[in-house]
Amino acid sequence: MAPTKTRAVVLKVLPYRESSYILHLFTESHGMVHGVARGMRTARGQRFLERGFLTELLLYVKAHRDLHTLGSIQVLQFWPATRAALVRSAVRDVAFELVLASIRVTDPHPELFAFFEDLLGDIETRPERAVYPFVLWRFYLQYAAMMGFGLDLERCVQCGTDTAGRVAYVNTTRGGVECDRCARTRAPSNRIEPDTGRLLAGKTGMEGARGRLSGEDAQRITGLLAGHCRYHFDIRAESKALEFLAGVVGE
Fold it and tell me: How would you class 242 by CB atoms within 10 Å of its CB: exposed for 0-12, middle for 13-18, buried for 19 or more?
């Protein structure tokens, strides 16, 4: 097959033999792709490519093969602020880990590629206090919705009551929230306060919200959204990237 020129986000980089890498990519033209980039490692082991880079490359797709050939790789954006900041890079890695665990079929999905590109731009340019937790929360919610597992935060999944401005409880298996009257278990770990609910539903902006949110609550809500995605994507393994992020923001 003739090579395809495409843009790609580098999700993971693995050394391969003496001078090559295996790259896990999300491409604009073919979706998730695993490919070999030959001759990309120097004698001193220095990397030309890293996780998170936005690239343009030639993709040689081999029919009935899981590993394809990559060539003419050019770096379009390497997001320097993200590479230099632990919180930014940790949030990026949490997102990438979920993507790698949840996408198993290679199909073109340009809308998803654009979403990933926008995510990387937000991680790079937003204030760090917004990157965690708000950019991460928005990633969880929008990614789940784009994959067909949106979390309904605006109406009780039991009675249909509008939950705006009211305490609600996340029901992961039902993919939504329950009002205080319908909730079978009112566990504090599943509780969504009215201000947080409005923020998650996009009714209020991120500006100023971080100051009203405790570190404990930020991690609790992050865990709820991560748990929603893990449940609906049938991911059994614990998130090492999320564990690392919790350690970074808890310092």
Answer: buried
